[in-house]
Amino acid sequence: MQGMKKLVSGIFASLGFGSVWAAYNWNFPQPVTPIAHETLHVHNLFMVIALTLFFGVLALMLYSFWNHRKSRGQVAAGFTGPKTRKQWMFTLLPFVCLLILDYGVFGIPAYHAVKMYENTKVDADLVVKVTGNQWFWQYEFPAQGVKFSSKLATPRDQILNISPKGENYLLEVDNPLVLPVGKKIRFITTSNDVIHSWWVPAFGVKRDAVPGFLREFWAKVDTEGTYRGQCSELCGKEHGFMPVVVNVVSEQAFNTWLDSKKPQAAGDAAADNKVLTLEEARAQGEKVFTSTCMACHQATGKGIPGSFPPLDGSKVATGPVDVHIQTVLNGRPNTAMVAFGKTLSNSDIAAVVTYERNAWGNKTGDVVQAAKVAELKKAQ
Ligand SMILES: [Cu+2]
C-alpha cells in the first residue's frame, strides 16, 4: 500500500516538470495536404459517431442494470430457443453500421479518403522516387535526372549523451527533400534491402517501401514549410536514425534548388576521371565510411561479432583489390551487405575501399581510383 502511494504521488509530481510535456500534443499535427485534411475530418466524424454510440449503449446498460435489479424481484430472461425477429435485428444493426462506416457504402467519407489516397496517376506535376536503405532515404527525380541520398545529420555526440540534444534531435538530415508548394507530387517508393516506411504526419501519408515492389502515393502540400517524419517500419538496428525532412518552397525556389542538384550528376561523371592521392582518397573515404558503413562495421572496423564482420584484418579488405571493390559494388546476396553500386558514386566507392584498405590495422598502401570502379562496373 505504501509503495502504491509513493508510485501515484511520484507520477503526479513528475507531471509538474516541463520535460514530461515536452512533446505533448492533443491533436493531429496541422494537416497540409488534401489527404491529411480528409483523414483528420474522417477521424473527427468517426470520433463523434463512436462516442455517441458509446454513451447510448452505456446509458442503456446502466438503465437496464438499475431497473431490472434483483431486489425488485426481477427474474433473468433466458435467450435460448428459436431466433426471434428482435434477435436478428440486434445482430444485423451493428453489422450495417460497420458496413456504412468502414466500407463506405453510400459515399461515406472513409470511402472518399481511400479513393483519394489511391488516385496517384492522374495529372501529377512531378514524380519523386523514394528508396529505403539501411539506414537512410534516397530521393530521385527521374525525369530531371536528379538523385541524392538523405542521411541523419544529428551528431553522434548528442546520441551518446555527450553533448546536449538539439531542437530537431534525430529529425534532421544532411540533404532534405525539396518540393514545390501547391503541386501534385506522385511518389513511387521501393527499398534496396528490407521493408521501410516513408511517413510524414503532416502530409497524412505513410507508405511501406518494399524491396522488389513499387508502391505509390501522392501529396499536394498547400503551405510552405519544413516537415519532418520518420521511417515507421522496424528495419533493423538504426531504424530510429533515418528521419525524413521535406522543405516545401515556392516553385521558383524549387527550380533553383533542382538546378543546383544537377551539376552533382555531371560532377559525378567528371569525378570518374580524377586521380586522387592516398591522402585525398582516405579523407573522402572516411566520410563515406562514417555516413554509410559505420553503423554496421563500426568506427573501430571491428564490426559486431555474429552480425557484422570485422573489416580490420579482413581477407577481403587486405586481399585482391578487385574482389573488395566487387563486394562493395554488388553486396552479398541475402545478407545485410547490400549492393552499394546503386547508391554510391564510383568516386565514393573507390574512396571508401581505399579507406578500408588503409585504416585500423590494414596497411595495404593501395589507392583505388574511380576509373577502376567504373571499369569493373562495365565488365559486369
Ligand atoms: Cu527504415
Structure, briefly:
With 380 residues, the protein is α+β, with helices and mostly antiparallel strands.
N to C succession of SSEs: HHHHEEEHEEEEEEEHHHHHH
Span from first to last CA? 72 Å
The biggest beta sheet reads:
5 strands, mixed
CATH architecture of the largest domain: Sandwich
Could you describe the 3D structure shown?
The chain is α+β, with helices and mostly antiparallel strands and 380 residues long. The protein has three domains: 28-55 and 83-118, no CATH class; 126-262, Cupredoxins -  blue copper proteins (Immunoglobulin-like, Sandwich), CATH 2.60.40; 272-379, Cytochrome Bc1 Complex, Chain D, domain 2. Helix content is 42%, strand content 15%. It has helices spanning 2-15, 34-67, 85-103, 109-118, 156-159, 251-271, 278-297, 315-318, 321-330, 346-357, 370-379; strands at 126-133, 136-141, 146-150, 177-180, 185-191, 196-200, 205-209, 215-219, 225-231, 244-249. Strand 6 and strand 7 form a beta hairpin. The longest helix is centred in the first third of the chain and has 34 residues, at 34-67. The chain starts with a helix and ends with a helix. The model has no long low-confidence stretch (mean pLDDT 87).
